[in-house]
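User:
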Amino acid sequence: MKSLATFFKLDELSTNFKTEIIAGATTFLTMAYIIFVNPGILSAAGVPFPAAATATAVGAAIMSILMGTITNRPLALASGMGLNAVLAFSVIGVAQSKIPWQVGMSVIFAEGFLIFILVMTGLREAVMNAIPLTLKRAIGVGIGLFITVIGLNEGGIIRPAPITLVSLGDLSSKHTWVTLIGLMAIFAFMALRIKGSILWGIIVATLAAIVLQVVQLPSSIIGAPDFSAFFAPFQKVNGSIALTQIFTPVLLVAIFSIMLTDFFDTMGTVVAVGEQAGFVDKNGKVPGIKRILMIDSLAAVLGGLFGASSITTYIESASGVAEGGRSGLMSVVCGVLFFMAAFFSPIIAMIGGGYVIDNGQQYTLLVQSGFIAPTGSYYLYPITAAALIVVGFFMMQVVRDIEWNKFDEAFPAFLTIVGIPLTYNISHGIGMGFISYTIIKLFHGKKSEIHPLMYGVSFAFLLAFALQ
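Assistant: Predicted structure:
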C-alpha cells in the first residue's frame, strides 16, 4: 500500500486511498451507461451487441488503467458518445453503399494512428499551448454547462420539444422522481460534509429506482464476454482485409472529420477537468500533457482495433474529481471496475442503463443521437443524472475568471460557452470560439495577439464545418 501511495504521489497531491477509490467508483458509475448505449448504437450498424459490449468495457478498462499509471492524472476513458453515432449512422449506415462495420472500425483505427503521429511530432501539444487562456477557461465553462444540460435531459427534468427546442419534463414521471431524489440526496450529503456525496447520491437513486419499480433486480449476475469484434480492421470482409478498404474519397473525408473532432474534444476535456483538479498552471498549460495526449490517441487506435468505436478521455472524469480524486489511482480504480463490468453486465445494466419514455412504448436510440426528430419520446438515465448536474455546477465556477470587460476576449469565450451545449458537441463549440477569436482580433487590429497556429486551426474548423 505504501509503495502504491508513493507511485501515485498521494501525499504530494494531498489525497489518500479512500478518496481515490471513492472517486474512481463514482467516475465509473457516472460513465457506466456507455457499456450499454455504445453497443446499442453500434449494433444498428451491424456490430453484434454482445461483442460491442465486451469491446466497450474491456477497451475502457485497458485505457483508463494506462492513463492512470503512465500520466498519474484523474482521467478515465471510454468509447466517445457522438463519435460512435457518426460512425454508425454517417460513416457506415448512411453511405451511398453501406460499408461493412469492420471497415468503419478501420476508419477509427486510421484516424487514431494519425493523431498519434501528431502527438509524437509535438503538433498536438503545440496547438493546445497556442489556445488563449480565455478560451481555455471558456471551454471548461462550456463543458460544465453541457454536462448540466445532459444531466437535466437524461433525468427527465427537461425534454426535447418542437419550436422551443426544450421544455420542462414530466415531473409526475417516476423516472424524474429518481433523478430528483438522487439530487436531494447529494445536497444532503454535501451539507453534512459526508465524503463521497455524489457516489452516495447515486446509491440512493438506485434504491429509489428499485422501490419505485423504475428498474428491476437482474435475474442473473454474470454475463459471459464476447470477443468476436476484436481486431476488426484485420478481419477479412468482401474478399480482403478491412483496413485496405478505407482508401476511398468518402472514407478519407470521414477520417479527417472524425480526427478533427477527436483532436479537440480531448483538449477541451483535459483543460476542463484539469482546471477542476488543479493540475493546470496559471498560464493555462497542463504539465505532462504529451503523455496524456499520447494515451488518448492510442485509445482511439485501440477502440478501432477492438471494435468499440473511438475511445477517448471522458468528461465524466470530473465527477470523480468532484469527489476529491487527484491522482491516476482514480483512473485505475475506474478501469478495474470497467473490466469487472465485462463479466457482471446485468448488474451494471440496472444502474447505468437507459429507459425510453413514450407512453410505455419502446423508441429508437436515433432520437437521442439526433438523427431523427423527437416526437414526444426521450431517453433517460435517471440514476446517474443527478451526479452530472452537480458536476456541471462545479465546472461552471471558472466563469468568473474570464475578462468580460474586453469584447475581443469575451465574445469568443461567450460563443464557446453557448456553442458547446447548444450544438451538443464539444468540438463544434470550440470551433465557433476559435474562428470568432481570430476574426475579432484581426478586426480590432490585434494581429500580434493571435498565435500563428490559431490561423491554421481556425481554417481547419471552417473546412470541417463546410464539409459537414
